[in-house]
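Please, structure for the following, as tokens.
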Amino acid sequence: MTTLDLSPAPGAAPLGRMVLAQAGAEVRAILRNGEQLLLTLIIPILLLVGFSLAPLVDVGTDRRVDFLAPGVLALAVMSTAFTGQAIATGFERRYGVLKRLGATPLSRGGLLLAKTLAVLAVELLQVLVIVGVAYALGWQPAGAVVAALPYLLLGTAAFSGLGLLMAGTLRAEATLAGANLVYLVLLGCGGVIFPISAFPDAAEPVLSLLPITALTSGVRAVLGAGEFPVGPLAVLAVWTVVTLGLAARTFRWE
């Protein structure tokens, strides 16, 4: 006769399962948060549709969607990896969520990996929706969207580092205000809606060093001209190393 062994067997789940479970929880939290959903998906789509259909700005071409679609893809990455992540992480730190998660079997490295996977999952949804809307507006990219993947991934890393740096050093209210302010500034001067050539010549070299400008110009070169410039990748790589390095040294979990 077979007997059941009902003795306790405590132990943590495998790391991979814990990371995937936490990543799923992060994604659900983002999608349930109306403000984050507005920032990460709805605003980019409204900008793409509005500025593509209405001649509100001179982008140097009659096919405005061809100029705007790559910039909006870059904006979507910034919205999720930087602004949304900075605000969410800042308030998680304030309310003690990170401290409690740090006491679970999920390591802090596993938590950061879960957050990264959640960001990538949301970005995949953004890319699919934005590309679909752009094609519906008549977008005709010169290169395949997958060719822009190195820029999008490196841009995600750079903006994630910047967001975690802000969330790990500032108070939650300051992170909220600062992240939204940076979002608006980079939206206006990063080549997303307005061409960099519209700014004074003296400002262009400075603006080209911004992470959003590098991401926008790189994605636009791939999808608009079928080129693969190395300069924007180098700028994004520097931002990634600097911001992630500083975030790792200064991040406070409480």
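Residues 16-250 form one domain. The mean pLDDT is 86.
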